[in-house]
């Protein structure tokens, strides 16, 4: 009996060790796959900069990647996809910096819903991200036409269900960016004025105002610029920590560049928010006539790890025009 128990114990131990080794192997293989995915992401070209340089997909952490894929698989499992479903899939792709996949998704949706101003607006947005600006302007203009007067009040929503603003506002916002990339200041100003007419939320007002102020200054319309932001004071009902409202406070002289961020911080450690703030500071220095300091910050922005935010794209267009 003792011999039997001893044999059983030995066999049980071997089985457990075998199972543990298998689990460890699976864990190692899973980790290896994650590493490969990360390496592959860094080698996937998403865009070409305005200066002709390749722009590669940014990597994300495994939790974000799993969440992105889970959302896409869940929505794709539905029998019939709606316009909103294609929008949800697009947001999930963007979460993982898969801009090209998002564009392909919107294109698929537009084959099914060719008159969807929602999908056109979002595909136009992503075409701007990847610097395919003429495709972007075509989508955005068509979206604007489809919105017309009938859908002026149709709201966009964030992934958490909060309101983002009207489609009319966001179409105009991105049309204006297209014109800024091409230094078409009059057209950009017209687009931002339309944005302000259709700004349903306080942050929409501060966002469009910050950009329009910059455009007016580029046009030499300083009085219009100052009059535009004068009402946006400490009583403003929007988020006063919003980066665009903070930029307006700088323009008004209520804060200094040092109040906004530490520009001496190593550039490779700048967050996307800090990079966007840095752009506002560079623009402020340019308005003060200190083009040397402005250009120094612009070039630092292009050394950051964030090539998709508008501050980076606009900076890229500035440097490309200086070259």
Characterise this structure.
This protein is mainly α. Helices cover 67% and strands 4% of the residues. The chain has a two-stranded antiparallel ribbon with strand order 1-2. The longest helix has 42 residues, at 2-43.
List keywords for this structure.
323 residues; mainly alpha; two-stranded antiparallel ribbon; 67% helix; 4% strand
Number of helices: 15
Mean of all residue-level pLDDT scores: 89
What structural class do helix, strand and pairing data support? mainly alpha
Shape: globular
Cα-based radius of gyration, to the nearest Å: 25 Å
Query: Sheet with the most strands?
Result: 2 strands, antiparallel
Summarize the helix and strand pattern as letters: HEEHHHHHEEHHHHHHHHH
How far is the first residue's CA from the last residue's CA?
89 Å
Uncertain segments: 1-38
Side by side, the strands of the main sheet go 1-2
The percent of residues in helical segments reads 55-70%
By DSSP, the count of extended strands is: 4
Approximate strand percentage? under 5%
What is the secondary structure topology, with strand pairs?
Layout: H1 2-43, E1 45-48, E2 54-56, H2 62-76, H3 83-95, H4 99-112, H5 117-129, H6 133-147, E3 155-157, E4 163-166, H7 167-181, H8 185-197, H9 202-218, H10 222-229, H11 243-251, H12 257-260, H13 272-287, H14 291-301, H15 310-322
Antiparallel strand pairs: 1-2, 3-4
Helix pairs in contact: 2-3, 3-4, 4-5, 5-6, 5-7, 6-7, 7-8, 8-9, 9-10, 9-11, 11-13, 13-14, 13-15, 14-15
């Amino acid at each position: 009996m003792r011999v039997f128990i001893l044999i059983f114990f030995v066999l049980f131990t071997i089985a457990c060790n075998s199972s543990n080794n298998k689990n460890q192997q699976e864990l190692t293989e899973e980790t290896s796959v994650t590493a490969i995915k990360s390496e592959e992401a860094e080698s996937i070209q998403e865009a070409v900069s305005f200066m002709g340089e390749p722009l590669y997909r940014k990597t994300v952490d495994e939790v974000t990647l799993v969440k992105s894929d889970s959302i896409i698989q869940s929505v794709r499992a539905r029998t019939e996809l709606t316009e909103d479903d294609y929008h949800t899939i697009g947001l999930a792709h963007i979460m993982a910096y898969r801009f090209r996949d998002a564009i392909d998704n919107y294109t698929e949706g537009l084959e099914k819903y060719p008159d969807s101003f929602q999908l056109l607006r979002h595909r136009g947005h992503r075409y701007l991200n990847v610097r395919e600006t003429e495709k972007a302007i075509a989508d955005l203009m068509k979206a604007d036409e489809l919105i017309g007067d009938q859908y002026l009040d149709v709201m966009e929503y964030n992934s958490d269900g909060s309101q983002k603003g009207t489609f009319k506002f966001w179409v105009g916002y991105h049309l204006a960016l297209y014109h800024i990339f091409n230094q078409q200041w009059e057209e950009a100003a017209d687009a931002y004025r339309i944005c302000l007419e259709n700004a349903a939320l306080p942050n929409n007002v501060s966002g469009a105002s910050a950009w329009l102020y910059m455009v007016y200054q580029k046009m030499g319309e300083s009085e219009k610029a100052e009059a535009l932001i004068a009402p946006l004071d400490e009583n403003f009902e929007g988020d006063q920590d919003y980066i665009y409202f903070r930029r307006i406070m700088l323009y008004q002289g209520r804060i200094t560049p040092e109040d906004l961020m530490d520009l001496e911080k190593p550039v490779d450690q700048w967050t996307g928010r800090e990079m966007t703030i840095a752009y506002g500071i560079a623009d402020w220095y340019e308005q003060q006539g200190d083009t040397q300091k402005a250009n120094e910050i612009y070039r630092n922005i292009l050394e950051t790890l964030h090539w998709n935010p508008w501050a980076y794209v606009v900076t890229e267009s500035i440097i490309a025009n200086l070259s």
